[in-house]
Amino acid sequence: MLGSVEGPHDVKRLDAEELPGLANEIRDLLVDCCSRFGGHLGPNLGVVELTIAIHRVFDSPRDPVIWDTGHQAYVHKLLTGRAAGFGALKQEGGLSGYPSQAESEHDFVENSHASTALSYADGLAKAFKLRGERDRTAVAVIGDGALTGGMAWEALNNIAAVKDLPLVIVVNDNGRSYSPTIGGLASHLSKLRVTRRYEDFLEYVKEKIGNVPVLYDALHGFKKGVKDILAPQVMFEDLGLKYVGPIDGHDEQAMEAALRTARDFRGPVIVHALTQKGRGYSPAENHDEDQFHSPGAFDRVTGAEKPKGRIWTDVFSEELVRLGKDREDIVAITAAMLHPTGLAAFADAFPDRTYDVGIAEQHALTSAAGLALGGLHPVVAVYATFLNRAFDQLLMDVALHRLPVTVVLDRAGVTGDDGASHNGMWDLSILQVVPGLRIAVPRDGERLAELLQEAVSVTDGPTVVRFPKGPVAAPIEAAGRLGAMDVLRAGDADVLIVAVGPMAQACMDAAVLLDAQGISATVVDPRWVKPLDEALVLAAGAHRLVAVVEDNGRVGGVGDAVARLLRDADVDVPVRTFGIPQEFLQHAKRATILGRVGLTGQDLARRITEAVARRDQPLRSPSAQR
């Protein structure tokens, strides 16, 4: 059946008894594709029936469906005509792992940063209302931990204020984000998942007083009080939102009925669906850590993941545990990503010193500030792309008070196949403006351990340590020291290459190729890129050209900081910056993207050779130019 589904209209034409077969086909395809290349398998196995019901009730794209987070939209892709290309999911030239406007009119936003769907949907529904498009409904599917984000509750507060807003909110309650969802709200929803007392009470009220309106009105206040005691869904209704549920999210017919009721109300309604992450694939269902949230390639029969080798995150994880044994003041904070950021081992060793705040990066940073004010040294581990959300807190709550908080940025630079929103290519630019902040960028695993030790020893301000996704780089030993910088290769006075962290190997490769062109290059690793070592001024002044190579956007990054340092010191040597163009990159493997943007040894050697050649050309007079 899936092969004949070219869009939601085909889903609507199916008979109800055909839908379980369609669901089975979808799950089979999800497991097959994700076993080969990896992907967000667990969340999507849990939303199969829910997604089918949405596309049978609503008319996408006229009724926009916004997914939060977008990693649970695989089934949506399959039902909107993209099944044929699903085998190339997250591969170069294939489908994105998130909704993508470039792929389909059914994808309104690439909603891969959590807790934003309700705000998008709020704006869309208000637009429909103002434009008089009364036959349109905005649908927001929020789950997989996204309701732990404060932005979602800001949106709910505003949505509830407009009683005739054409908006349906589907809460996909699987009790988990990456791991079991943390926090008071999560506990509140967990109670709701197992509460039958209120449902029984409603049946009793309906049976006993349903036909006596006067008595019903008299007892309404009493019923409301009982409801407060018996079921926590009053939380939503107290906001002024109509509530339907909880519904078995794997009962497609029940989901359809609930969604039709919500759609026809023509006001904001929450439909609460209970789902099981990893549904229908036993290795995922029985996977305690995260129900196969986002596995790499795995054996389809056993579910065993294929070996990944040692990655940067492993080095950080091991070193933090070692530091935690030596220092009782070190505490760890994660934003719903205990395992992906490598904090699980620290949590196992020091459970009382580990805090999972849910998908709430802003709270994570300001809570860290409070911990630091209380005499501890917090280590906040997040993906680099998610630090963008907590910039104000890092600036005004941590740095302003010169607090010793260490932020560890995993997946910094090009992450590749996770798409535009996950490339951590912004941090070295936005963090340059934070007073008193120190930023370390290790080039290999040994330097990561070394720089993390140095970072947590800082007592008078915040520090950042950033590293990329994937296998840890092979060690590159220093040939010497210049100030606090490592000299990786000593050369003559032609070119000084400033190699930022994991770009060191590409810079060393470039230096060898430059030698073949008769151009001698010195390669230094600054280790700490903010503040830059003053020794860099003397080194730059002794060379004809400075080239700065970084795995970050070129604008405002380390290259610009080096140029500013030299200008301030009245050093006139030209600076060439090599980094990531300021654009949203299409998904592909990290190595492919680095090649595409010119950050390989061969590309760097060619471009530096061209820059040196231009320096050697004598200036032509205006008459000669004419």
Structure description:
- The chain is an alpha/beta fold and 626 residues long.
- It has 26 helices and 18 strands.
- The protein has a seven-stranded mixed sheet with strand order 7-6-8-9-11-10-16, sandwiched between helices. It has a six-stranded mixed sheet with strand order 12-13-15-14-17-18, sandwiched between helices.
- Helix 4 (48-57) crosses helix 12, helix 14 (312-326) runs parallel beside helix 20 and helix 21 (504-516) packs across helix 25.
- The N and C termini lie far apart (71 Å).
How much helix is in the residues? 40-55%
Runs with pLDDT <50, length 5+?
Answer: 176-199, 208-230, 619-626
Question: Number of DSSP helices?
Answer: 26
What integer value in Å does the Rg equal?
28 Å
How is the biggest beta sheet arranged? 7 strands, mixed
The spatial strand order of the largest sheet comes to 7-6-8-9-11-10-16
User: What is the percentage of strand-forming residues?
Assistant: 5-15%
The mean pLDDT is 85
Terminal Cα span: 71 Å
Q: Structural class from helices and strands?
A: alpha/beta
What's the shape? globular
Give the total of beta strands.
Answer: 18
Map the helices and strands.
Layout lengths: L7 H6 L5 H19 L3 H5 L2 H10 L7 E4 L5 H9 L34 H14 L7 E6 L6 H10 L7 E7 L10 H10 L3 H13 L3 H18 L3 H5 L3 E7 L3 H14 L3 E6 L7 H4 L26 H15 L3 E5 L9 H6 L4 E3 L4 H13 L3 E7 H4 L3 H9 L6 E5 L16 H4 L7 E3 L4 H12 L6 E4 L13 E3 L2 E5 L5 E5 L4 H13 L4 E5 L2 E3 L4 H7 L3 E9 L4 H11 L6 E6 L9 H7 L4 H16 L5 H4 L1
Parallel strand pairs: 1-2, 2-3, 3-5, 4-5, 6-7, 6-8, 8-9, 9-11, 10-11, 14-15, 14-17, 17-18
Antiparallel strand pairs: 10-16, 12-13, 13-15
Helix pairs in contact: 4-12, 6-7, 14-20, 16-18, 21-25
